[in-house]
């Protein structure tokens, strides 16, 4: 999108007025930059200013380019056209967080729907003055293939080179001093209320970060941090001194118990010495047990060796017999295969012998059949001769057709065709009359329906909806087609609508509230009582006809409880009832209006009681769910952000309706016209019906004559065709008999065939005798092969039996060997376990009582029996127990307190100098910070007071100092304003001033910072919304004047609308935003709007 540049209006009258206004403005405002052509030269832009924004597939934009001016840029466009998309692009394109915008939290939600990648390219002026160097920051957002919101990657480029977010921050924040998180520099649409809602300390912090390149803020933060560190150090030093005193008292208390503990430890040491010999005695026992198990292990090993030798001897005959079994098996398989081959030869010879017998029987049957066939053929020849003679005689008796008979046939046919030719034009005339009659009848029906609609309340409401749609949609026609569709589907009872026709409301004020709340789109929509098929059919009809109407399917069949959200406590605020109590409608319609328009959460109030303050008080009291209230003058709305829990309040004026949909009146003139048209249409239908009936009577008379002529012609034609058809039938039969005669004649002499069959029979008899001899030889070979197979099978079976016997012996020996091996494994495990226990016992003894020379000498005088040692241990432990000490841990505590006392003294000595030096550092920083802050806030207060005075209000900025001047975190900034004479100054607060008053004060405060900020550009989104026209005009003039002053940053002001006749100058760049439906390619929108720009 290119900016629309300044030019004169094409209307001469308006041009003169605008020139006069410009001349008067020139006396007070000096041009800051001179535009050349459509764009400013780069030299006009300050360092860090935005010179161009290019977006691709970002939010609602597929592709767009924005070129702002160096001073004040006014981005204007209706709500939803994409203005705030550029605010989001500036924030995200310069590495701002999504939290700054108060909108979506995930980057994926800023990629245009249906796309996987979006790009933001922002061009920043590199240096001030005449240079043309720029820094181009490009960010590419890429959705992951999985489609999850959290997996959206970012790729950065600076001046075409790959980069990262840290380098972008270094360029944006470090070089160009852009602070997107500061609301005085970057104020998105959903954050406007946030500034007024900041605490006074946060307002001071936000202002400090804006002026003097944030140096005051850094000093303030350093003071807060150092003060907190010193406070922590003082607190820590006091705690250390207290701990030291307490430690000294504890040492004095523990000295007596310490001596008793030392005596008790002496007895316990003696008991421990006796205990140290016990593990060595236990080790000796384990050592003896291990020696015995080793002897048993040697015996078991020798026994296992003998069993393994017996196992080897038993396995030898098994291996030999397995080889023999394999050999016998192969011989048996060879003999078995030979037998099978002999069986195949036997079956082949037998099959051939049987085939020769079958062939011989077939030939003998053919010889017998030939004898019978010759006798039958002679009888057939005699019968066919007689039939041919009879047919020839019948053909000679068929009469000839005379020419006079043919002339009669032609005369009858000509008469039929003449009557038909006269009738056909009458059919055409009947069709033409019907075509003229049908539109006339349809017109009568339509006029009758129109008259009925005009007479009914429904018709009046449908006509009112048509008028509201500016005749773009004829709701009467829509209603007829929708109801015809429901009737064809046999679902008329499921259809409700339009909603306006289903609502009954008799109070005129309530009708106005309902029309305002529901809107034309909902009042024109249809509702279906839980039927998905009907919903799809109606939506397809709307799509085909291009009717932009809604159809809602209500699946909730529960009865709606009217007034469920209304409570008696609301009456104290003037609320009388909720909207769902003001009208009646079918349940499915009521449930739809509750779900989509929340008529159960909107209410009506008395204008004398309800105002903006009363409404906010009612909502904050949290009585219930009512969020929107109508009076005859205003509409009060509670707005909850979709992205966080913030709530704002708006007040709209209740403007008069352009047209009333409820209670529409009948157009009498239209009614009279419909009656006249209906009488005329009925008269025309009667005339057309009379003409059609006359033609039908003539056509019927000719049809009767045509049928009689056709019947006479066809009867004569059938009579004349009979001789010809009889002759053709007999000729065909004669040809068939002649063919049969030839075949029968050929079968009367078959002597040659009989002789050939006799020779074949003799040959077959010889072949059968030879095949019998062959079959006997093959059968003898089969018997011999079976004998050899049986012998080989006997040898093979004997070998397998012997092998099984020796395998059983081997298995018995193997089982015995396994038992011996198991016993040997068990004794081996015992040996290993005993060795391990012996080793563990020694390790335990070494761990509990290392065997030193001194310990050996002590053990020599001790008993060698474990029980005696335990008695000595018990004796010395009883002596230790006899020493009475109330604090058994006195020794450990005494040592602990001594160590702590030493540590505390060292810490106190190290910390004391740090506390004393920190106070001097804070004093120096405070002397550097506070005078500068007071000076800057004084300048801001003067500018704010001047700006407020120019718009007719009073305001000042004050620094609030705490009771303790060194409590730096308690310093605060108070913005005091008053909008009416006679009232004191009040702090700017979201709960005191209205939305418009806060917007005016916020905007004036931001303008007051214009000369002090080091940020190269500022963004303010829809701050003028909620202002009255007078304040909006004054604030806009302040914006223009401020932008015209030298050394002020670039500014972006976004708004959906501006007042007519505002004063502009060449420092203002107006950018019209209209993303969405675009006119045809033939329209040049920029060239059309260019003459109309200021």
UniProtKB/TrEMBL annotation:
Keyword Cell membrane on entry: no
Name of the protein in its database record: Structural maintenance of chromosomes protein 5
One GO cellular component term: Smc5-Smc6 complex
Organism annotation: Bathycoccus prasinos
Coiled coil: 367-394, 664-747
Chain intervals with Basic and acidic residues compositional bias: 832-844
Residues covered by the Endonuclease GajA/Old nuclease/RecF-like AAA domain: 50-422
Ranges for region Disordered: 1-43, 832-852
Compositional bias of kind Polar residues: 1-12, 20-29
Gene Ontology molecular function terms on file: ATP hydrolysis activity; single-stranded DNA binding
Family named by the database record: Belongs to the SMC family. SMC5 subfamily.
């Amino acid at each position: 999108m290119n900016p629309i540049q300044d030019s004169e209006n094409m209307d001469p009258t308006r041009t003169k007025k605008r020139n006069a206004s410009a001349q008067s403005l020139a006396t007070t405002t000096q041009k800051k930059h001179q535009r050349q052509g459509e764009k400013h030269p780069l030299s006009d832009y300050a360092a860090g200013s935005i010179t161009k924004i290019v977006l691709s597939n970002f939010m609602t934009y597929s592709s767009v380019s924005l070129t702002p001016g160096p001073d004040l840029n006014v981005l204007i466009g209706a709500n939803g056209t994409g203005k705030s998309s550029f605010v989001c692009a500036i924030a995200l394109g310069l590495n701002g967080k999504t939290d700054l915008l108060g909108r979506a939290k995930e980057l994926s939600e800023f990629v245009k729907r249906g796309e996987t990648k979006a790009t933001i390219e922002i061009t920043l002026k590199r240096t001030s003055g005449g240079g043309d160097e720029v820094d181009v920051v490009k960010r590419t957002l890429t959705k992951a293939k999985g489609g999850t919101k959290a997996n959206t990657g970012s790729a950065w480029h600076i001046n075409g080179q790959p980069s990262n977010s840290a380098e972008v921050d270094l360029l944006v924040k470090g070089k160009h001093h852009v602070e997107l998180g500061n609301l005085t520099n970057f104020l998105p649409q959903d954050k406007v209320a946030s500034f007024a809602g900041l605490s006074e300390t946060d307002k001071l912090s936000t202002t400090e970060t804006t002026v003097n390149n944030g140096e005051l803020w850094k000093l303030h933060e350093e003071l807060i941090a150092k003060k907190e560190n010193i406070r922590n150090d003082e607190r820590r030093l006091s705690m250390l001194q207290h701990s030291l005193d307490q430690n000294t008292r504890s040492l004095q208390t523990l000295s007596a118990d310490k001596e008793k503990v030392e005596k008790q430890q002496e007895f316990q040491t003696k008991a421990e010495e006796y205990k140290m010999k016990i593990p060595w005695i236990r080790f000796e026992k384990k050592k003896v047990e291990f020696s015995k198990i080793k002897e048993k292990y040697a015996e078991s090993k020798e026994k296992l060796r003998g069993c393994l030798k017996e196992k080897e001897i038993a396995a030898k005959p098994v291996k030999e017999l397995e080889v023999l079994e394999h050999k016998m098996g192969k011989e048996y398989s060879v003999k078995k295969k030979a037998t099978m081959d002999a069986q195949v030869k036997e079956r082949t010879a037998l099959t051939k012998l049987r085939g020769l017998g079958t062939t011989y029987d077939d030939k003998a049957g053919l010889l017998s059949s030939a004898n019978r066939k010759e006798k039958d053929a002679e009888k057939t020849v005699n019968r066919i001769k007689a039939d041919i003679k009879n047919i020839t005689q019948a053909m000679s008796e068929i009469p000839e057709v005379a020419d006079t008979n043919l002339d009669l046939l032609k005369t009858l046919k000509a008469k039929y065709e003449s009557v038909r030719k006269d009738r056909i034009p009458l059919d055409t005339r009947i069709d033409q009359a019907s075509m003229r009659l049908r539109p006339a009848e349809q017109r009568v029906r339509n006029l009758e329906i129109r008259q009925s609609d005009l007479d009914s309340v429904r018709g009046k409401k449908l006509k009112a909806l048509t008028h509201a749609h500016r005749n773009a949609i004829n709701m009467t026609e829509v209603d007829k087609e929708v109801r015809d569709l429901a009737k064809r589907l046999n679902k008329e009872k499921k259809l409700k609508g339009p909603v306006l026709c289903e609502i009954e409301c008799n109070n005129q004020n309530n009708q106005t509230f309902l029309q305002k709340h529901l809107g034309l789109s909902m009042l024109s929509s249809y509702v279906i009582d839980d039927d998905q098929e009907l919903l799809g059919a109606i939506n397809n009809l709307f799509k085909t006809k291009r009717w932009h109407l809604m159809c809602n399917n209500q699946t909730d069949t529960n009865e709606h409880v009217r007034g469920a959200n209304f409570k008696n406590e609301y009456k104290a605020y003037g609320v009388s009832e909720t909207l769902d109590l003001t009208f009646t409608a079918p349940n499915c319609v009521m449930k739809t209006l509750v779900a989509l328009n929340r008529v159960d959460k909107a209410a009506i109030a008395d204008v004398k009681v309800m105002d903006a303050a009363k409404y906010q008080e009612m909502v904050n009291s949290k009585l219930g769910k009512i969020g929107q209230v109508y009076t005859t003058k205003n509409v009060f709305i509670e707005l909850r952000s979709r992205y966080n829990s913030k709530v704002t309040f708006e007040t709209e004026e209740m403007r008069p309706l352009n047209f009333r949909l409820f209670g529409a009146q009948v157009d009498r003139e239209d009614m009279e016209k419909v009656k006249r048209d209906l009488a005329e249409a009925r008269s025309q239908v009667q005339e057309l019906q009379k003409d059609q009936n006359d033609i039908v009577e003539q056509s019927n008379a000719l049809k009767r004559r045509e049928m009689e002529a056709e019947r006479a012609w066809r009867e004569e034609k059938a009579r004349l065709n009979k001789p010809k058809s009889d002759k053709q039938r007999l000729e065909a039969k004669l040809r068939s008999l002649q063919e049969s005669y030839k075949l029968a004649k050929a079968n009367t002499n078959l002597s040659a065939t009989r002789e050939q069959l006799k020779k074949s029979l003799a040959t077959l008899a010889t072949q059968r005798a030879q095949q019998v001899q062959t079959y006997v030889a093959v059968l003898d070979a089969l018997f011999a092969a079976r004998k050899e197979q049986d012998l080989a099978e006997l040898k093979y079976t004997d070998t397998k039996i012997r092998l099984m016997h020796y395998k059983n012996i081997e298995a018995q020996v193997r089982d015995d060997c396994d038992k011996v091996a198991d016993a040997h494994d068990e004794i081996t495990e015992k040996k290993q376990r005993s060795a391990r226990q012996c080793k563990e016992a020694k390790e335990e003894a070494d761990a509990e009582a290392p065997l030193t020379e001194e310990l050996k000498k002590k053990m020599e005088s001790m008993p060698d029996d474990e029980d005696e040692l335990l008695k000595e241990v018990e004796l010395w432990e009883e002596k230790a127990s006899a020493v009475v000490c109330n604090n058994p841990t006195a020794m450990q505590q005494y040592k602990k307190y001594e160590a702590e006392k030493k540590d505390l003294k060292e810490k106190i000595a190290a910390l004391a100098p740090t506390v004393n030096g920190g106070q001097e550092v804070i004093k120096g920083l405070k002397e550097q910070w506070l005078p500068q802050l007071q000076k800057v806030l004084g300048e801001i207060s003067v500018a704010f007071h001047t700006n407020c005075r120019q718009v007719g209000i009073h305001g000042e900025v004050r620094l609030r100092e705490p009771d303790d001047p060194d409590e730096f975190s308690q310093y605060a900034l108070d913005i005091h304003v008053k909008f009416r004479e006679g009232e004191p100054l009040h702090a700017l607060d979201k709960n005191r001033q209205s939305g418009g008053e806060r917007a005016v004060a916020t905007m004036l405060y931001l303008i007051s910072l214009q000369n002090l900020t080091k940020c190269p550009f500022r963004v303010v989104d829809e701050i003028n919304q909620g202002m009255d026209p007078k304040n909006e005009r004054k604030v806009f003039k302040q914006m223009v004047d401020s932008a015209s002053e030298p050394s002020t940053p670039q500014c972006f002001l976004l708004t959906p609308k501006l007042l007519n006749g505002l004063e502009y100058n060449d420092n203002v760049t107006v950018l019209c935003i209209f993303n969405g439906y675009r006119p045809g390619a033939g329209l040049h929108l920029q060239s059309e709007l260019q003459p109309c720009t200021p």
